[in-house]
Amino acid sequence: MSTHSQTTSVTSLAIRNAKGKRKLTMLTAYDYSSASLVDACGIDMLLVGDSLGMVMLGREDTIGVTMDEMIHHCRAVTRGATRPLVIADMPFMSYEPGVETAMTNAARLFQEGNVRAVKLEGGSEIVPQVRALVQAGIPVVGHIGLTPQRVATLGGFKVQGKTADAARRLEADALALVEAGVFCLVLEAIPAAIAGRITKSIPVPTIGIGAGGDCDGQVLVFHDLLGLFDRFVPKFVKQYANLREIAVEAINAYRNDVETGTFPGPEHTFRMNEGEEDKLED
Ligand code: KIV
Asked: Are residues 134 and 62 in the same domain?
């Protein structure tokens, strides 16, 4: 098994400057253990995604995720990962109401959650918030296409940008976000042709998820990559392992060992000092 030994922390500037030079990697993680795995593998960016509402907390969507929940998970992640750039999703309604709300909540993710960038879902309508955060020294990742926080208005988890009009709107959103100062842009669930056009037309890296191979980098959800989440598997997911199957087998073996008295064995058991047990009364 190969692990990555580089220890210098990845910066938003390094990500921005990698455009056109190499492919970038981003993976979500939500706690200390998953973050330390991502750290060991040389992944460039670690996203504390609000997908935690679904894969960690079992909710139907990401809408219910709160700032306090995000901060709780960000603190655990930043204890486990020192090399990747750790980015926090700004949860639903933590930035939409306006610049002041966005500034207050991004500051909390920085100061209490210890992350070094934030991600906001949305296009031209959130430009004032993005601009203010960047001017205040908070690196921002944009996110357009399928934006799960808007699942109610999008009518479900559906591929976006399938018509020329919708594609043009996505291209305009990408340009507006770049102009506002994002250092990279997540493109979720859009046709590969549109992702390719956006990637060519903007100076910052695009990070695709369900957006084809022409993006400057890719992101996956930790639980999807490892086969830990079986409620549904989107078409764009590649499962690199089926850890759920391995875990079920291991837990069943443990139950069986306990029920049959095979575990714990002598090697898992502590002994009193020589002769001490004999001094105890019956
Ligand atoms: O919340 C999340 O995990 C995300 C990624 C899918 C990009 O936003």
From this structure: yes
Cβ of 186 closer than 6 Å to ligand 1, yes or no, is yes
Q: How many domains does the chain have?
A: 2
Is the CB of 219 within 6 Å of ligand 1?
Answer: yes
- What residue owns the CA closest to ligand 1's atom 3? 49
| Domain of 267, in residue numbers | 246-279
Name the residue at shortest CA distance from atom 5 of ligand 1: 49
Quote the pTM value: 0.95
Q: Are residues 270 and 234 in the same domain?
A: no
Query: Looking at residue 155, what is its pLDDT?
Result: 85
More confident residue, 230 or 117: 117
Helix pair angle (99-111, 67-80), 10° resolution: 30
Q: What beta strand segments (E) does the chain contain?
A: 24-28, 45-48, 85-89, 117-121, 140-145, 184-188, 206-209, 217-220
Same domain, 163 and 274: no
Q: Is residue 109 part of a domain?
A: yes
For residue 30, report the distance from its CA to the centre of ligand 1, in Å.
11
